[in-house]
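FAQ: What does a ligand-bound record look like?

Like this one, built around fructose -6-phosphate:
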Amino acid sequence: MCGIVGYVGPRKATPILVDGLRRLEYRGYDSAGVALYGDEHLWVRRAVGRIDQLAEAVVGAPSSQMGIAHTRWATHGGITEENAHPHTDAAGRIAVVHNGIIENNSSLRAQLEAEGVVFLSETDTEILPHLIRKHYRGNPLEAVERALRQVRGTYGIAVLFADHPGTLIAARHGSPLVLGIGDQESFIASDPQALVAHTRRVVYLDDREIALVSAGSVQVGRLGGSLEDPNIKLIDDDWGLAELDGFPHFMLKEIHEQGESILRALRGRVQVEEGNAKLGGLNMEPRDLVRVERVVSLGCGTSFHAGLAASLAIEHLARVPADSEIASEFRHRNPIIPKDALYMAISQSGETADTLGAIQEVRLKGGVVMGVVNAVGSTIARTCGAGVYVHSGPEIAVASTKAFTSQLTAMLVFTLMLARTRNLSLDGGRRVAAELQAIPDKVVRYLKNPGPIDEMVRAVTAARYVLFLGRGFSYPVALEGALKLKEVAYIPCEAYPAGEMKHGPIAMLEENTPVIFITSKDDQRDKAISNMREVLARGAKLIVIHPEGDEEVKALAHISIEVPAVADYLSPLLNVIPLQLLAYRAGLVLGRDIDKPRHLAKSVTVE
Ligand code: F6R
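The answer part, i.e. the structure of the complex:
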């Protein structure tokens, strides 16, 4: 959620740190700060607001070749300069940036206060420099290790000592950290996105690992163990430097990338002639797949919605019972894990704490979990060890768009494999494979002519409340559409299965209330039409997303958005796009901060 950057090497640290923070700003954006080493002292500046404010505050910084920096998303303590990181010990000789939450913060703080420490912030992080100071006897690594032994909770930290120029310390437990190794220079970051401009050679820290980071070399070890040369990995080619490329916002760029990103999720995986697919990372042969009696997706937010759409497709095509679970609920309810179930943990960032917690719960109970992840090398990908990369490339806008369609595509490829081990014939498999392959072109075609989105925007921006409805495959799309509109435009709205409308939400309908109805070519269409008539009878404004050529539905709607016609189980891949565009343009009209909506953060690494 928050972002960390550290640098040590021959170049000027400040621009590297500030640029790194800009690349991580999508992770958290309440306040930011840097600590630089210069002239045997530490120089610290912090600022409330965006990185631009920090960039102004560091004008005139000492020329330094080493420093740490942070962009914050507040958890403990309000959004103030005092609460921004880095935090230092009383003498200002040790500076720390921290992501995560120190759970025993209160007791440690009370202990330190009793020993005379005066705290300057309300943050849990501030205990770290004071604890490190307390244990410091000249050896920085030892001091950090001893401090961390007292801490309960999660952390990704970078520490800078005024007494040890040329060396930074990094440690992680439950909050991601990656080290970058360049030519005579090294980096610390909470996300590889801050590194790709400088190096592709990286070391992902594991939980309870600590690292000594100096120019061009890093050494890593378990907390309390000895340090060794680490295993260096290369950042995947998909993970390029995310630039706007002429688009005004990342959200719009990412919506428009979906033809290409869906293609990448399919590439090399679908075999049209064999009517089948192959996902090498799953390490599952047909004899393993036939033993799967249930598939359960785990995820949060948009990833949960992708799992929901996928479970419907799994039941429909493979006739295997399937569910999607909200990871934050699942992990805490002592779930029953059937022995023959296969769990699929879906996550764009691969760092979502609740999804990770759910994975650990399944594994603890002896279950099998595969990752369906975008960020290569992320914690979830490494924890699962097996699974599918969705290859949508970096997603920078906080509101997830292309990740949804890529996750669902990857899950549909898996569905095809699973279905072929059951009742899906060769011909049936060929049909599904061909339909999947045709999706990217249909997405591109739709995006060229998206229909009267602005009419929808006018209706929702004038409304006090918006209702999204859908049946079957369209219900997860309704949920996702409502989530996007809340996140990006802050418009009160909710999503319901259309059949549930008369059990309550119909009471919300007034003259002109926008009701966005999502439909597909399925056997629930007639029932959907009855629901539309119920909406119209209450004077509401009916907006319908429907397949091209459905003239009956089109004639009923006040506003009609046509998308290319596809099989029902594929319809979420097309139907979600007008809703993404609606949220984007509504946010724009209302003057929202599109890529960084209020209170949100990309990658929710705390519970
Ligand atoms: C929605 C959104 C969030 C994420 C959720 C899960 O636009 O961005 O709801 O989908 O926090 O994140 P990942 O997929 O990274 O696990």
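Follow-up question: can I read anything off the structure? Yes, for example: DSSP finds 19 helices and 26 strands in the chain.
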